[in-house]
Known about the structure:
mainly alpha
Amino acid sequence: xxxxYSQDLREKAVAAVDRGVPKxxxxxxxxxxxxxxxxxxxxxxxxxxxxxxxxQQGHSHRIVDWERFRAFVQQHGDKTQAELAELxxxxxxxxxxxxxxxxxxxxxxxxxxxxxxxMN
Length: 120
Protein backbone atom coordinates (compact mmCIF):
# COMPACT_ATOMS: atom_id res chain seq x y z
CA UNK A 1 0.00 0.00 0.00
CA UNK A 2 1.31 3.44 -0.86
CA UNK A 3 2.28 5.97 1.77
CA UNK A 4 -0.16 8.76 2.64
CA TYR A 5 0.54 12.28 1.42
CA SER A 6 1.91 14.66 4.04
CA GLN A 7 -0.41 16.99 5.93
CA ASP A 8 1.57 19.96 4.62
CA LEU A 9 1.05 18.94 0.99
CA ARG A 10 -2.67 18.46 1.59
CA GLU A 11 -3.00 21.92 3.15
CA LYS A 12 -1.04 23.58 0.34
CA ALA A 13 -3.14 21.91 -2.38
CA VAL A 14 -6.43 22.82 -0.71
CA ALA A 15 -5.21 26.40 -0.11
CA ALA A 16 -4.32 26.71 -3.79
CA VAL A 17 -7.84 25.69 -4.79
CA ASP A 18 -9.21 28.20 -2.26
CA ARG A 19 -7.11 30.95 -3.88
CA GLY A 20 -8.80 30.19 -7.20
CA VAL A 21 -6.16 28.08 -8.90
CA PRO A 22 -7.91 25.58 -11.22
CA LYS A 23 -7.88 21.97 -10.01
CA UNK A 24 -6.10 20.81 -13.17
CA UNK A 25 -3.18 23.14 -12.41
CA UNK A 26 -3.09 22.10 -8.73
CA UNK A 27 -2.86 18.39 -9.55
CA UNK A 28 -0.06 19.08 -12.05
CA UNK A 29 1.78 21.43 -9.69
CA UNK A 30 1.72 19.05 -6.71
CA UNK A 31 1.78 15.80 -8.75
CA UNK A 32 -1.32 14.37 -7.11
CA UNK A 33 -4.40 12.67 -8.52
CA UNK A 34 -7.70 14.38 -9.12
CA UNK A 35 -9.42 11.87 -6.82
CA UNK A 36 -7.04 12.71 -3.96
CA UNK A 37 -7.66 16.43 -4.34
CA UNK A 38 -11.43 15.95 -4.47
CA UNK A 39 -11.29 13.72 -1.38
CA UNK A 40 -9.26 16.34 0.52
CA UNK A 41 -11.71 19.06 -0.44
CA UNK A 42 -14.61 16.96 0.89
CA UNK A 43 -12.72 16.24 4.11
CA UNK A 44 -11.93 19.91 4.56
CA UNK A 45 -15.64 20.64 4.74
CA UNK A 46 -15.92 18.05 7.53
CA UNK A 47 -12.88 19.61 9.23
CA UNK A 48 -10.61 16.57 8.90
CA UNK A 49 -7.96 16.97 6.25
CA UNK A 50 -5.64 14.37 7.82
CA UNK A 51 -5.12 10.92 6.33
CA UNK A 52 -7.53 8.17 7.30
CA UNK A 53 -6.05 5.83 9.90
CA UNK A 54 -7.11 2.68 11.64
CA UNK A 55 -8.91 1.02 8.78
CA GLN A 56 -8.64 -2.74 8.56
CA GLN A 57 -6.00 -4.25 6.34
CA GLY A 58 -6.40 -7.89 5.40
CA HIS A 59 -9.13 -10.24 6.45
CA SER A 60 -10.22 -10.63 10.05
CA HIS A 61 -9.22 -13.92 11.57
CA ARG A 62 -12.08 -16.07 12.82
CA ILE A 63 -9.76 -18.36 14.75
CA VAL A 64 -7.71 -16.41 17.27
CA ASP A 65 -7.04 -18.94 20.06
CA TRP A 66 -4.36 -21.01 18.32
CA GLU A 67 -3.59 -23.30 21.24
CA ARG A 68 -7.26 -24.22 21.56
CA PHE A 69 -7.45 -24.82 17.81
CA ARG A 70 -4.31 -26.99 17.87
CA ALA A 71 -5.80 -29.13 20.65
CA PHE A 72 -9.12 -29.28 18.76
CA VAL A 73 -7.41 -30.50 15.58
CA GLN A 74 -5.39 -33.12 17.46
CA GLN A 75 -8.56 -34.37 19.14
CA HIS A 76 -10.48 -34.52 15.84
CA GLY A 77 -7.62 -35.49 13.53
CA ASP A 78 -9.70 -38.02 11.60
CA LYS A 79 -12.24 -35.43 10.42
CA THR A 80 -12.33 -33.59 7.11
CA GLN A 81 -12.04 -29.81 6.94
CA ALA A 82 -15.80 -29.48 6.39
CA GLU A 83 -16.47 -31.65 9.45
CA LEU A 84 -13.98 -29.63 11.51
CA ALA A 85 -15.77 -26.44 10.44
CA GLU A 86 -19.08 -27.83 11.66
CA LEU A 87 -17.60 -28.95 14.99
CA UNK A 88 -15.75 -25.68 15.76
CA UNK A 89 -17.50 -23.61 18.44
CA UNK A 90 -17.92 -20.58 16.15
CA UNK A 91 -19.36 -20.55 12.63
CA UNK A 92 -16.44 -20.92 10.21
CA UNK A 93 -16.04 -22.22 6.69
CA UNK A 94 -13.98 -25.17 5.55
CA UNK A 95 -11.66 -22.68 3.82
CA UNK A 96 -11.05 -20.90 7.14
CA UNK A 97 -10.14 -24.27 8.67
CA UNK A 98 -7.82 -24.90 5.73
CA UNK A 99 -5.98 -21.59 6.23
CA UNK A 100 -5.72 -22.19 9.98
CA UNK A 101 -4.32 -25.70 9.45
CA UNK A 102 -1.74 -24.33 7.02
CA UNK A 103 -0.76 -21.63 9.52
CA UNK A 104 -0.13 -24.28 12.17
CA UNK A 105 1.82 -26.43 9.72
CA UNK A 106 -0.67 -29.30 9.51
CA UNK A 107 -1.05 -30.99 6.16
CA UNK A 108 -4.43 -31.95 4.85
CA UNK A 109 -5.54 -35.44 3.98
CA UNK A 110 -5.60 -35.93 0.23
CA UNK A 111 -7.79 -39.06 0.21
CA UNK A 112 -10.32 -40.46 2.60
CA UNK A 113 -8.79 -43.95 2.44
CA UNK A 114 -5.34 -45.22 1.64
CA UNK A 115 -4.92 -47.13 -1.59
CA UNK A 116 -2.59 -50.01 -2.17
CA UNK A 117 0.12 -50.17 -4.76
CA UNK A 118 -1.47 -50.92 -8.12
CA MET A 119 1.68 -52.70 -9.33
CA ASN A 120 1.41 -56.39 -8.45
